């Protein structure tokens, strides 16, 4: 690991001031990084993928941004809530099961105790060519250097949203649930506070895969708001992976349904493990709206969700896997007793 | 940098490079070699310790960030010669072969029970999945946890 200075921020104002010097490069390359759980950052610093010169420990902000509250308008999750706390929270489990499941199916208990929700959504790809700096070609690590994954071992990588410059997939689960439920992100920065639609937090790679989010330098995620909706209780997270536990998704579906008998009033669908960013499958939602939900209609929704799929050679199987995952998730959600 | 860690009930003052992880501080600076360095990448669980009673990974925790928290390692689990019920159960069930993952397994198991996630074999396997055992002692680890769970004191402080 390269040397760095460590400071603790007792409150938000101090944290933002400490990070203000980070102005310039996109946040993932900034010389000053916020440290919460460290499960991504410390790991990538050990691998020499991330090289900040200064860490600002923001765990002291938990007093301001470490709470969970649930009301008639929705669910508010502080950015410094740990994954386990949200996964075990009674209101989250009862009213937003897709969120609770996306969290407890992720990582291990130890990591879920450490990792913050704000850091979780900003976790970086597990693409092996990104994580191993001995590969020279990685446009995400070294802009303009190429992509070793496109012709490499790429069975885990993106079939949706990738580009000719990068096929890294977004690995997380929780963000997929947030995308599906139309959450918003509270952000504070050197130029004040703003709210970002969760779908707009992550960028597609296009020709700048090293710019992963729309966060401005020095900006800090302080929390998430999940709007209440008649679909939230009939929701689930289905995660398909190589191992039964403690493994990233090959394919996942976050599904929330508002049903009128057997007919879909509204569907909310997110896809994970399959895409360059946490993926909201709007096209699939449209296919389901106003239709009776049966296997044939679920299949039609899945076809729509993957109509733009462009899989790298090793990941071709993930198109069919993704469709089947979504079909199964939709039918399971329909069968839920709520 | 100068830091103070609260480990197994005592303040320990240390002068460390900021890069030092909690795991390295425990092993190399405090001589507490129970927590093991397996993968050093947060994947194997051999470095599991308790922070404020919750299980965390020593290898991905910076020592500086552990200041102000109560750290418990395997060395702090027994009361003198009196083994913690989980330690006794691991011995009774022969729940290890080489022993390398064992300190992490035991601390994780203590937390697993305290969290209320040791009610069934399936639940234990799910909530112990962050601790790998390359000898494959899993059946006996599960049996030890099932045996120890009802013998553990209900208060969190006892962990």
Q: Which segments of chain B are poorly predicted (pLDDT under 50) over 5 or more consecutive residues?
A: none
CATH topology descriptor of the domain at 235-335 in chain A: Enolase-like, domain 1
Note the overall shape of chain B. Answer: globular
Query: How far is it from the N-terminal to the C-terminal residue of chain B, by CA?
Result: 30 Å
Largest sheet of chain A: 5 strands, antiparallel
Name the helicity range of chain B.
25-40%
Tell me which CATH architecture of the largest domain in chain B applies here.
Answer: Roll
CATH topology of the largest domain in chain B: Ubiquitin-like (UB roll)
Residues in helix, % of chain A:
25-40%
Oligomeric form of this entry? heterodimer
In total, the number of strands of chain A is 12
Short recap of the structure:
With 338 residues, chain A is of the alpha+beta class.
Write up what this structure looks like.
The complex is a heterodimer of chains A (338) and B (159). Chain A is α+β, with helices and mostly antiparallel strands. Among the domains of chain A are: 5-58, Uridine Diphospho-n-acetylenolpyruvylglucosamine Reductase, domain 2 (2-Layer Sandwich); 235-335, CO dehydrogenase flavoprotein, C-terminal domain (Enolase-like, domain 1, 2-Layer Sandwich). Helices cover 29% and strands 20% of the residues of chain A. In chain A, a hairpin with a 2-residue loop joins β6 and β7. In chain A, α6 (97-104) packs antiparallel against α10, α11 packs antiparallel against α12 and α12 (295-305) crosses α13. Chain A is globular. In chain B, α2 (85-92) packs across α5. In chain B, a hairpin with a 2-residue loop joins β1 and β2 (10-15). Chain B is globular. Chain B has helices spanning 22-29, 85-92, 102-114, 121-127, 138-148; strands at 2-7, 10-15, 48-51, 54-57, 70-72. Chain B folds into two domains: 2-76, Ubiquitin-like (UB roll) (Roll), CATH 3.10.20; 85-158, [2Fe-2S]-binding domain (DNA polymerase, domain 1). Chain B is α+β, with helices and mostly antiparallel strands and 159 residues long. The mean pLDDT of chain B is 96. Chain B starts with a strand and ends in an 11-residue tail after the last helix. Chain B has a five-stranded mixed β-sheet, with helices on both faces. Chain A binds chain B through residues 1, 3-6, 35, 37-39, 42-43, 46-47, 55, 57, 59, 84, 107-111, 113-114, 245-246, and chain B through 1, 17-19, 21, 40-42, 45, 48, 51, 54-57, 60-62, 64-65, 108, 111-112, 115, 117, 125-127, 129-131.
């Amino acid at each position: 690991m390269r040397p760095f200075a460590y400071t603790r921020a007792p409150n938000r104002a101090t944290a933002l001031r400490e990070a203000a010097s980070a102005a310039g490069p996109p946040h993932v390359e900034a010389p000053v990084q916020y440290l919460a759980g460290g499960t991504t950052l410390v790991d990538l610093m050990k691998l020499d993928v991330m090289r900040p010169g200064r860490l600002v420990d923001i765990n002291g902000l938990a007093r301001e941004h470490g709470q969970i509250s649930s009301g008639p308008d929705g669910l508010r999750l502080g950015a410094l809530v740990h994954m386990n706390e949200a996964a075990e929270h009674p209101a989250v489990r009862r009213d937003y099961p897709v969120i609770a499941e996306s969290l407890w199916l992720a990582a291990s208990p130890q990591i879920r105790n450490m990792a913050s929700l704000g850091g979780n959504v900003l976790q970086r790809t597990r693409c092996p060519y990104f994580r191993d700096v001995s590969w020279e070609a990685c446009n995400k690590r070294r802009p303009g250097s190429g992509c070793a994954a496109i012709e490499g071992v790429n069975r885990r990588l993106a079939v949706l949203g990738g580009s000719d410059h990068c096929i890294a997939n977004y690995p997380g689960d929780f963000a997929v649930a947030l995308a599906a439920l139309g959450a918003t992100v509270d952000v504070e920065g050197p130029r004040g506070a703003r709210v970002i639609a969760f779908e707009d937090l992550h960028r597609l790679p296009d020709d700048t895969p090293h710019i992963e989010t729309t966060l401005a330098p020095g900006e800090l995620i302080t929390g998430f708001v999940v709007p209440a909706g008649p679909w939230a209780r009939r929701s689930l997270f289905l995660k398909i992976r190589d191992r039964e536990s403690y493994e990233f998704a090959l394919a996942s579906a976050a599904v929330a349904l508002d049903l009128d008998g057997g007919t879909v009033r509204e569907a909310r669908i997110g896809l994970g493990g399959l895409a360059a960013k946490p993926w909201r499958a709007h096209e699939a939602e449209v296919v389901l709206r106003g239709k009776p939900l049966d296997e044939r209609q679920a299949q039609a929704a899945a076809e729509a969700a993957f109509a733009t799929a462009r899989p790298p050679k090793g990941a071709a199987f993930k198109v069919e896997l993704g469709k089947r995952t979504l079909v199964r998730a939709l039918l399971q959600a329909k069968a839920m007793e709520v | 940098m100068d830091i103070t860690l609260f480990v197994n009930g005592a303040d320990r003052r240390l002068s460390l490079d900021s890069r030092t992880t909690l795991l390295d501080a425990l092993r190399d600076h405090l001589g507490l070699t129970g927590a093991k360095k397996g993968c050093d990448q947060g994947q194997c669980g051999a470095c599991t310790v308790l922070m404020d009673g919750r299980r965390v990974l020593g290898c991905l925790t910076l020592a500086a960030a552990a200041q102000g928290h109560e750290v418990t390692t395997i060395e702090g689990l027994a009361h003198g010669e009196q083994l913690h019920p989980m330690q006794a159960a691991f011995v009774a069930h022969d729940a290890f072969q080489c022993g390398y993952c064992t300190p992490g397994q035991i601390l994780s198991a203590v937390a697993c029970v305290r969290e209320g996630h040791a009610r069934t074999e399936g639940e234990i396997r799910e909530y112990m999945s962050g601790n790998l055992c390359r000898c494959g002692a899993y059946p006996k680890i599960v049996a030890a946890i099932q045996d120890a769970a009802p013998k553990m004191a209900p208060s969190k402080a006892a962990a």
